[in-house]
Write a structure and sequence with these properties.
CATH class of one domain: Alpha Beta
Strand content: 15-25%
Helix content: 40-55%
Strand order of the largest sheet: 2-1-4-5-6-7
Distance between the termini: 23 Å
Bound molecules: adenosine-5'-triphosphate, magnesium ion
Order of helices and strands: EEEHEEEEHEHHHHEHHEEHEHEHE
CATH superfamily of one domain: P-loop containing nucleotide triphosphate hydrolases
Length: about 350
């Protein structure tokens, strides 16, 4: 968890120092005031990646040579420094020692929900797969080892397919199938646990008819191949097809999470606001699995929560805040919290972003 955050030459902030609450942190301010920038900086502290753009250089304030983010965790005493210079890769230092992204995501874990996540039922399969995998990377070291081994092996098999000669492909098929089954078992177990949390959240959140649709959404884990079939045999049988396509057409790299209402894809039925609430709930359910099963207190970051949500749906979100015990950081354009609502929450801290500059 980050308690003290300092930004230098990061987007619109030449210098900013804030103290975050260990409970709920609410940032509000008009368009362009810097809400997304602050949440982006906190997200960077737990992933070294931007959720807004793939290009870290664009986060350096215009006219400057580098940005610098410092974070301090009061509980662990850990300090974090992230620096990005225009011409150099990002540098991450934990307690003044250089560290890797995979260490960072475990030391400062977060779940980020932002613009792309809001319509994630509508996003391509790899988006949902990556979201599930991100939680697994945080939760389980074994998962990251298996994940890297699987994708290395997939690369080798695809290289053979591209070369046009598959006489030596059998050992790769065996290895890919074995790693693929392992990867899928870990994903499947995390998915099952998430589904239980999702149902629990839905049951407890709101009894009004406006969110009845949530109960009709059927969430299904697709492993990437027909699970009735043995993965090794499937890879073997598909060698000719794969050779023509020059890539492996089946396996865990095609895995997805499907949302169906009466066998129709939910994205075709749900309104945008409904999709947004559902996406938030799914991410929070993953977040709850991390907390309850793995004892990992990830920070929950939600950018621009109110847009597209009417007052009723927003109330559901407010109820949700009460369920989650971790540090929460979220933003809206307007201040939707009266002092009465604030006093109901644990450690609530409100930031008017225009006044921070
Ligand atoms: N590299 C940069 N250098 C300087 N300013 C930047 C840079 N990148 C973005 N900005 C500016 O930072 C300001 C804050 O952007 P940000 O996205 O954080 O605003 P916001 O409060 O989230 O607004 P909105 O309500 O529209 O989402 C904007 O005016 C933007 O143009
Ligand atoms: Mg924004």
């Amino acid at each position: 968890m980050i308690n003290d955050l300092t930004l230098n030459n990061f987007r619109c902030f030449s210098s900013l120092k804030i103290k975050l609450s260990p409970g709920i942190n609410f940032f509000y301010g008009k368009n362009g005031s810097g809400k997304t920038s602050i949440l982006e900086a906190i997200n960077l502290c737990s992933s070294a990646k931007s959720f807004k753009s793939g290009n870290l250089q664009s986060l350096i304030s215009i006219g400057e040579e580098a940005f610098n983010i410092k974070g301090f965790d009061n509980t662990s005493g850990y300090s974090l420094t992230i620096t990005k210079e225009k011409t150099k890769p990002i540098s991450i230092q934990l307690n003044n020692t250089k560290t890797t992204t995979s260490k960072l995501i475990r030391e400062f874990p977060s779940t980020s929900i932002h613009n792309n996540t809001f319509s994630f039922a509508d996003a391509p399969p790899d988006f949902r797969r990556k979201l599930l995998d991100k939680s697994l990377f945080i939760a389980d070291k074994q998962f990251s080892e298996t994940w890297f081994a699987y994708y290395r092996c997939l690369k080798q098999r695809n290289a053979l397919l591209k070369s046009g000669s598959i006489t030596n492909i059998d050992p790769w098929d065996k290895k890919l199938a074995s790693l693929g089954n392992e990867l899928t078992n870990l994903r499947g177990a995390f998915f099952d646990a998430t589904l239980i949390e999702l149902k629990d959240l839905i049951k407890n959140l709101d009894k009004s008819s406006s969110t009845k649709y949530l109960e009709h959404i059927n969430v299904i884990f697709f492993s990437g191949w027909d699970k009735e079939e043995d993965l090794y045999h499937l890879l073997k049988n598909k060698r000719d097809i794969d050779l023509r396509r020059k890539s492996t057409t089946t396996g865990p790299h095609k895995s997805d999470i499907k949302f169906l209402i009466e066998d129709i894809e939910a994205k075709q039925i749900l309104s945008r606001g409904e999709q947004k609430l559902f996406s938030i709930l799914w991410c929070c359910a993953q977040h709850e699995v991390l907390r309850k099963i793995y004892n990992i207190n990830a920070v929950l970051i939600i950018d621009d929560i109110k847009s597209e949500l009417d007052d009723n749906t927003f109330k559901v979100f407010i109820n949700l805040l009460d369920f989650l015990n971790n540090q929460i950081i979220f933003s809206c354009i307007d201040d939707h919290f009266s002092s009465k609502i604030e006093s109901d929450f644990r450690d609530f801290k409100k930031f008017h972003v225009e006044q921070l500059k």
